[in-house]
User: Which sequence fits this backbone?
């Protein structure tokens, strides 16, 4: 796995053609709301339990 | 009818012209838990058709279709069948016929309850519909289906398997030690540093990086590649057999403002490495 492959997967999931450029980025990172963080943690826990078959 | 995109096409039953038998194989201890099934072959001995009956056959009815299905009986006693192999047999020939039932044994391994035998349903059907010799397929008989079955010609299930203790991967590599050339297949730690990637800065909020792991090393090749006639082309290679997804929090632009969003990226982390033929499925026990 390379960084490029992570980028490709991310773009595919978000339906984007390229990563946001520097102009599009905020000067400061947005604060992550509690419900988004909770969703992230839940997915993190689930991914440790559920494995998917490789090729 | 299980597909969302294909409309169900209703059919009309034209004729039911099959003779069906169920073969029961006790599989107790046949496949040790730490073994990989390479190929399973069902051998059936086709008995010769009496010459007088053959003379009455037209050329159109000289063949019959033999279909092998895995019969699954669920806990609520309902059953279903899964097609595993099908081929034409000539009524003029006799002798051993081989069918590839690898799929059936893999299904049985993954889905059956402990101690449940392997059930294979053998159907012989008419190949051509028409008025000529409607019962010709009934002349196809396999040994031990009737009283005349002799012990030596009974149906046989041939299992080709590999001991994963010798032919499988060895789990995780020794941390900190480089994997030597020719060393056995193992899972090696590999850290993907997202903070260090220009495209990810400010866009990917979490995680800063993750342990992706990779499969490295060599796999022992079975002796004599021609032993098995499976559809495996290349040598056994060290591959990722089980993976997990990676959740990330990204900052997406919406109406000129940034909004954190959770995205799950599939197959980002290697959970398990295995030795397998390229393209061949990696069987594993399914959860309850």
Assistant:
């Amino acid at each position: 796995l390379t960084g490029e492959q992570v980028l490709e997967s991310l773009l595919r999931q978000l339906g984007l053609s390229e990563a946001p450029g520097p102009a599009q980025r905020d000067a400061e990172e947005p604060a992550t709301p509690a419900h988004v963080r909770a969703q992230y943690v839940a997915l993190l826990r689930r991914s440790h339990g559920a494995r998917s078959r490789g090729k | 009818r299980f597909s969302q995109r294909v409309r169900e096409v209703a059919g009309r039953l034209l004729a039911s012209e099959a003779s069906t038998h169920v073969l029961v194989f006790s599989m107790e201890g046949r496949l040790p838990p730490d073994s990989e099934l390479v190929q399973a072959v069902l051998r059936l001995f086709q008995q010769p058709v009496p010459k007088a009956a053959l003379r009455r056959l037209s050329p159109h009815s000289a063949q019959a279709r033999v279909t092998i299905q895995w019969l699954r009986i669920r806990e609520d006693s309902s059953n279903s069948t899964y097609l595993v192999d099908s081929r034409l047999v000539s009524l003029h020939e006799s002798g051993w016929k081989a069918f590839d039932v690898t799929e059936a044994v893999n299904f049985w391994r993954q889905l059956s309850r402990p101690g449940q035998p392997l059930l294979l349903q053998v159907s012989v059907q008419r190949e051509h519909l028409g008025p000529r010799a409607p019962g010709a397929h009934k002349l196809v008989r396999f040994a031990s289906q009737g009283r005349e079955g002799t012990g030596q010609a009974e149906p046989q299930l041939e299992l080709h398997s590999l001991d994963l203790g010798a032919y499988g991967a060895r789990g995780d590599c020794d941390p900190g030690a480089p994997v030597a050339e020719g060393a056995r297949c193992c899972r090696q730690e590999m850290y993907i540093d997202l903070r260090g990637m220009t495209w990810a800065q400010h866009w990917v909020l979490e995680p800063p990086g993750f342990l992706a792991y990779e499969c490295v090393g060599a796999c022992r090749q079975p002796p004599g590649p021609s032993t098995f006639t499976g559809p495996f082309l290349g040598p056994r290679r060290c591959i990722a057999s089980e993976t997990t997804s990676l959740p990330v929090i990204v900052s997406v632009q919406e109406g000129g403002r940034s909004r954190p969003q959770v995205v799950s990226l599939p197959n980002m982390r290697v959970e398990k490495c295995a030795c397998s033929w390229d393209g061949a499925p990696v069987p594993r026990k399914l959860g309850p």
Remarks:
- The first helix of chain A runs from residue 3 to 14.
- Residues 34 and 40 of chain A are 10 Å apart (CA to CA).
- Chain A has a mean pLDDT of 77.
- Chain A is about 50% helix and 5% strand.
